[in-house]
Amino acid sequence: MTYTVGEMAKKLGVAPSALRYYDKEGLLPFMKRSSGGIRIFQDSDMEWMRMIACLKKTGMPIKEIKKFVDWCMEGDTTIEKRLELIDRQRDAVLAQMQQLKETLATLNDKHWYYETAKQAGACAIHHQNKAHDPQEEICAMEGAAK
Amino acid sequence: MTYTVGEMAKKLGVAPSALRYYDKEGLLPFMKRSSGGIRIFQDSDMEWMRMIACLKKTGMPIKEIKKFVDWCMEGDTTIEKRLELIDRQRDAVLAQMQQLKETLATLNDKHWYYETAKQAGACAIHHQNKAHDPQEEICAMEGAAK
DNA sequence: GTACAACTTAAACCGTACTTTAAGTCAAGT
DNA sequence: ACTTGACTTAAAGTACGGTTTAAGTTGTAC
User: Fold this and answer.
1) Are A114 and B83 within 8 A, CB to CB?
2) Which residues contact B61 (CB under 8 A, 6 or more apart)?
3) E strands within chain B?
4) Is residue B77 pLDDT above 70, yes or no?
5) Residue-level pLDDT at B130
6) pLDDT digits (tens, 9 = 90+) for B115-140
7) Which residues make beta-bridge pairs with A32?
8) B121 Rama sector, left if φ>0, alpha if ψ -120 to 50, beta otherwise
9) A to B CB pairs, distance under 8 Å
10) Are A51 and B138 in contact (CB < 8 Å)?
């Protein structure tokens, strides 16, 4: 089974221009062309696309993904480099997850702050000993954050 | 205690130009100035900076952070809007965490693939027993590339 | 064999989030 | 008063990851 760039784009849920851009950047060195120059995607290419999509989701820039793809094309001599890149990216993802966990905790604090303020009808509920003015929002935030 | 833009930038670990940019974009409406026009940050401003940093970490664009900051300056009539924004962002963070979890699982598969390939000295080690191999797609991928 | 949608390219354009530059001002130390 | 480093601004530049445009080609359908 083969696909044109438009069909593949639809299958992947991306714009055709994005696939052409990835091709131009060297991310799709496995791509075949028709005699007329039309790109031909094959079912087996889906695995490359999934790998690229995975690395993109980690926040890896296009140029570094290209480095990985190039190593794949080079053969077995680059296995160790590829392993190191995967491991580095795994560490990066773990760090991102930790970061998000901390961010989520802060957002949960803010949720509580605004939920209680909503019940009371005023943010002042969080700083009873102070008169309300815009500057007091800061103190209120500080209270909720700690 | 007060700080210049350079001192505050150092405290926050960002470039002074970034703080000037945030100010220009309306993210720092609480900022004071000296009679000569020099920005003066105060300790109490740290809480605003932390809130902005938190929203930035969720991937929220500058313009939406400004919307939130503007609502904070407007007072209690915007409490509900702010709560909704926080809740939406909380959902967004949970979705990001789920996404990263799936990405991590894929990276763990790839780690195993390259770890065993490294031991064997060749990716070809994975080209047998495709039917039960969780990494069969990679074998297909690299097979197709050659 | 002609129409027509979908493809091709290079090059220009876009939005985001800053950074850099250039020209000038402020404020602290001597 | 003068020097000096850090500040000020507007405007231009940068990096990234595409999208859009314009002019032309391909391939299928009738």
Assistant:
1) yes
2) none
3) 2-3, 32-33, 39-42
4) yes
5) 52
6) 999 999 999 998 865 544 444 444 44
7) A40
8) left
9) 147
10) yes
